[in-house]
């Protein structure tokens, strides 16, 4: 080609295409049995691209791994993405082989996403006066579209330009980032602003012009949930903007001269196509087969060895549907009889909300065998869905007099539950749920008896694969059944067109709801047998399954709050924030919006000239907490005050204001929801409200805890494991000095300081003890010399000397850490002392940064997971212990290593002794478990 020809660079989103091809094409295998459907699709696309869309330059861009710099900014980024299907994993390397066989450069860079590299190359070529075509349909890449940069959908072979972007997002490409920051992304776990969907986001952008303008203008908006959400979650939106912004400053490992299109080596390409069995492509490209041809790609099943490596297949090939709609008592009784005969059934509920303590029961589905399921509509309304959701053709409604009943007969809820009640309570019939706690709360609230016995497919999977992939039904179905269930959005619509489930056409509701029960049953048949294979049966049977009922009771109970005190606190926080704002503005030398990162950046870096500022893609200075903390550590007053103001603002919005709104108006009690299958270590988390993040050691955190109060005539009792993770470290690493210290009840941090620094415990300097404490807890989390130095305010070199001295005194801890890291590399997971597998993605990553992060996770997981196992053991034993003792007390909350009870006044001493005994005997370690208890009228006094 002429050297003067304008550059036209074609960039193929290789990582994005392989997933799309895998799900779009039927199973295929190479002659050696390797799955190759995605490879075939990719190869076909690349051949067509070279034939029909010839540019001057070409490259295929890949993701180098799952962990990137964004995980350092937000550790939950893409945290819940599942592991790729087993049939797809070998195809990643083969797609790279295909790229090389065509002679096309394949580019990837550790720590960066393929999208960032595409953004960087697009900028590089347009700055050189050329143009770029991105071969992808990924919405995240649409922010790049501008003069000189376009996209091409590789499946539909359709260009994607500004019109297509505006049709999707409601804004021009240059505003896509702001829209994405507002709406977030559930797939990538980008938080966004709750309640803000695409239409609302685009309307706000149209009105205000930018995300910063929206957030700055939110306080002046008309009072509404949307306004409150924008104010409360402003930092989430700013964080989301950072996460979704593609980095044009990403490295470009190859220069443009290395990407010039070249004809492939026909011999090399032909041999590779033959080795894969892609004869049709070979002939289409005008190549002849050689005697080395080894076979033909086939859609036949893979050989036994390949099947053995894949996830457990669906136990039955029965089709998914059609399913029956149950409208009469007689029909329901027939299904109940079938369930009794089978000895098990899967059950799922449909509701008109996501809060099981407030949602109404709309319908129930049952499954008694694969493909044999039904739906029992109970509260569907006669109001039809809007025209956009009518199936197939948009038909004009018939005249009212002639219109058939759009819902049809339904069983009255009380009658349906009366028929189902004996089945739910029948000890000889196993009831199977996916996320059983939700359904149990819904059913019992509607008047059904407590279902028992119960199995939970979510927890069956979680007991085996915590951290390996998410535990949602749709994800499990795709992974282990090879089936994609009907999406909820397809049934109810999205955005403004979404309708409550009660208004969904019953035929559609049956297809959706009965399929959920069918999938749940098939998952149970597939996953339940593997509990024993993965040595997770005891963990599931003794901890996870019995904990469902315990947590359901805790959620029903809730905890009382002092609404008056919270409102007083909110007003006080507002006053203090106003005072802090005045002081901040005085330090700045002028008035400005303290909550505006843009204005703050101008103050700090343009006007005050502080060092270390970095501009973001938008041109504004970055002012997140890490930037401000660095400046505060350097002795600058203003950044530290901003951090304090932000902390107070967060406490005000997240707790002082939000708790009042979340409380039951009749009882003034808040009912948090415990999440059982989110963390990789087995720890519980909670939301609505999240009680795990209340500051423990600050004055403001104490004030918030004081607003959690006991009911009249009762007191709160707190029981907290003392230094449980350090005790587990002493146990699993078998450290004699630490074991002795715990056995003697010594101050473990003073003992550590004495051992490491060679000084007596008596008369020890508090600063020395503090340093030993920081090392003790830091070691659990794999702290670096830089991190310890920053925490203690000392140079990294001095901190490294402390860590080295620690390991010299306790070589068994270093040996334990190395053993655990190797275990994670060999198996992909580590194990708690009680047998829980904690999967560690990224442990074998080629990136040293990502691998080091995974190694720190591996070190901590057995300790944090072991602590979770111990407190769960106590929780499942406590209800029976309380009942046997005849005490009028109940468990309300679990937060980290603490349990909180409400007990009738006068019984707190007896309850304290009982709880302490149960918790301290929950596990037998080589060191004693110690539980500290306290009581009070509120949580702060009890803690």
From TrEMBL:
Keywords in alphabetical order: DNA damage, DNA repair, DNA replication, DNA-binding, DNA-directed DNA polymerase, Exonuclease, Hydrolase, Nuclease, Nucleotidyltransferase, Transferase
Question: CDD domains this protein is in?
Answer: DNA_pol_A_pol_I_C (cd08637), DNA_polA_I_Ecoli_like_exo (cd06139), H3TH_53EXO (cd09898), PIN_53EXO (cd09859)
All copies of domain 3'-5' exonuclease, residue ranges = 323-532
Q: Which domain of life is it from?
A: Bacteria
Q: Which GO terms describe its molecular function?
A: 3'-5' exonuclease activity; 5'-3' exonuclease activity; DNA binding; DNA-directed DNA polymerase activity
Q: Which processes are annotated in GO (biological process)?
A: DNA-templated DNA replication; double-strand break repair
Per its record, the protein catalyses:
DNA(n) + a 2'-deoxyribonucleoside 5'-triphosphate = DNA(n+1) + diphosphate
Domain (DNA-directed DNA polymerase family A palm): give its ranges: 701-907
The UniProt similarity line reads: Belongs to the DNA polymerase type-A family.
Q: What does this protein do?
A: In addition to polymerase activity, this DNA polymerase exhibits 3'-5' and 5'-3' exonuclease activity.
What is the protein name given in its UniProt record? DNA polymerase I
């Amino acid at each position: 080609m002429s050297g003067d020809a304008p550059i036209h660079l074609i960039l193929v989103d290789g990582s994005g295409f392989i997933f799309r091809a895998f799900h779009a094409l039927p199973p295929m295998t190479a002659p050696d049995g390797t799955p190759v459907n995605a490879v075939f699709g990719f190869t076909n696309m690349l051949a067509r691209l070279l034939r029909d869309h010839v540019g001057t330059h070409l490259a295929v861009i890949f993701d180098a791994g799952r962990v990137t710099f964004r995980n350092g900014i937000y550790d939950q980024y893409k945290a819940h993405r599942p592991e790729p299907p087993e049939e797809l994993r070998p195809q990643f390397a083969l797609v790279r082989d295909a790229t090389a066989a065509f002679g096309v450069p394949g580019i990837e860079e550790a720590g960066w996403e393929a999208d960032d590299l595409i953004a960087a190359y697009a900028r590089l070529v347009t700055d050189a006066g050329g143009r770029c075509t991105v071969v992808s349909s990924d919405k995240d890449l649409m922010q790049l579209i501008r003069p000189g940069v376009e996209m091409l959908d590789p499946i539909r072979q359709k260009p994607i330009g500004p019109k297509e972007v505006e049709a999707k997002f409601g804004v021009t490409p240059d505003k896509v980032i702001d829209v994405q920051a507002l709406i977030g992304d559930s797939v990538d776990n980008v938080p966004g602003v709750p309640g803000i969907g695409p239409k609302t986001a685009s309307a706000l952008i149209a009105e205000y012009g930018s995300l910063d303008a929206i957030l700055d203008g939110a306080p002046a908006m008309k009072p509404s949930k949307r306004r409150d959400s924008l104010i409360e979650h402003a930092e989430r939106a700013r964080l989301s903007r950072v996460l979704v912004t593609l980095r044009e400053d990403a490295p470009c490992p190859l220069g443009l001269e290395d990407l010039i299109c070249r004809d492939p080596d026909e011999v090399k390409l032909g041999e590779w196509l033959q080795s894969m069995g892609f004869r049709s492509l070979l002939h289409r490209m005008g190549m002849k087969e050689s005697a080395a041809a080894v076979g033909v790609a086939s859609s036949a099943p893979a050989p036994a060895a390949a099947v053995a490596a894949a996830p457990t297949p669906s136990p039955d090939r029965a089709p998914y549907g059609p399913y029956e709609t149950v409208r009469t008592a007689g029909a329901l009784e027939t299904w109940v009889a079938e369930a009794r005969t089978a000895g098990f059934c899967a059950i799922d509920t449909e509701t008109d909300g996501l809060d099981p303590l407030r949602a109404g029961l709309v319908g129930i589905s049952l499954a008694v065998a694969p493909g044999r399921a039904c739906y029992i509509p109970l509260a569907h309304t006669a109001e039809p869905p809007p025209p956009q959701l009518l199936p197939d053709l948009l038909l004009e409604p018939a005249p009212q007099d002639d219109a058939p009943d759009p819902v049809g007969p339904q069983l009255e809820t009380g009658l349906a539950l009366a028929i189902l009640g004996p089945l739910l309570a029948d000890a000889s019939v196993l009831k199977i749920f996916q996320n059983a706690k939700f359904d149990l709360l819904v059913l019992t609230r509607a008047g059904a008896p407590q279902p028992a016995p119960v199995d939970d497919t979510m927890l069956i999977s979680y007991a085996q694969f915590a951290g390996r992939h998410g535990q949602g039904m749709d994800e499990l179905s795709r992974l282990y059944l090879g089936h994609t269930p009907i999406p909820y959005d397809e049934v109810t619509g999205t955005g403004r067109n979404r309708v409550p489930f009660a208004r969904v056409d019953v035929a559609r509701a049956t297809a959706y709801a009965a399929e959920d029960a069918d999938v749940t049953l098939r998952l149970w048949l597939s996953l339940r047998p593997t509990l024993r294979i993965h040595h997770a049966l005891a963990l599931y049977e003794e901890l996870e399954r019995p904990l469902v009922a315990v947590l359901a009771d805790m959620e029903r109970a809730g905890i009382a709050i002092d609404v008056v005190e919270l409102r007083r606190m909110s007003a006080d926080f507002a006053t203090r924030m106003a005072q802090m704002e005045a002081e901040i503005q005085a330090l700045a030398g002028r008035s400005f919006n303290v909550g505006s990162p843009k204005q703050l950046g101008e103050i700090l870096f343009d006007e005050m000239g502080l060092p270390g500022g970095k501009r973001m893609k938008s041109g504004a200075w970055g002012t997140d907490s890490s930037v401000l903390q660095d400046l505060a550590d350097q002795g600058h007053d203003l950044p530290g005050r901003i951090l304090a103001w932000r902390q107070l603002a967060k406490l005000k919005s997240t707790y002082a204001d939000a708790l009042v709104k979340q409380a039951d108006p009749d009882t003034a009690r808040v009912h948090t929801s415990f999440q059982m299958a989110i963390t990789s270590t087995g720890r519980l988390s909670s939301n609505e409200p999240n009680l795990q993040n209340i500051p423990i050691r600050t004055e403001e955190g104490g004030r918030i805890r004081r607003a959690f109060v006991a009911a009249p005539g009762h007191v709160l009792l707190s029981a907290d494991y003392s230094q449980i993770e350090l005790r587990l470290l002493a146990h699993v690493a078998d450290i004699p000095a630490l074991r002795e210290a715990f056995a003697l009840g010594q101050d473990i941090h003073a003992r550590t300081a004495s051992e490491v620094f060679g000084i007596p415990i008596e008369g020890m300097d508090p600063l020395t003890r503090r340093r030993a404490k920081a090392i003790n807890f830091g070691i659990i989390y794999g702290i670096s010399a830089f991190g310890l130095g920053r925490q203690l305010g000392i140079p990294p070199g001095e901190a490294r000397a402390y860590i080295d001295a620690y390991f010299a005194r306790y070589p068994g801890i270093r040996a334990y850490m190395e053993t655990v890291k190797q275990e994670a590399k060999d198996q992909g997971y580590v194990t708690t002392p009680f047998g829980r597998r904690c999967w560690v993605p990224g442990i074998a990553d080629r990136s040293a940064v990502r691998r080091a992060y995974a190694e720190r996770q591996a070190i901590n997981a057995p300790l944090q997971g072991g602590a979770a196992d111990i407190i769960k053991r106590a929780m499942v034993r406590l209800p029976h212990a309380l009942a046997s003792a005849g005490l009028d007390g109940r468990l309300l909350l679990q937060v980290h290593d603490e349990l909180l009870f409400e007990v009738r006044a006068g019984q707190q001493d007896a309850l304290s002794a009982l709880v302490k005994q149960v918790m301290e005997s929950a596990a037998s370690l080589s060191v004693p478990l110690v539980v500290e208890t306290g009581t009070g009228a509120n949580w702060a006094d009890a803690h």
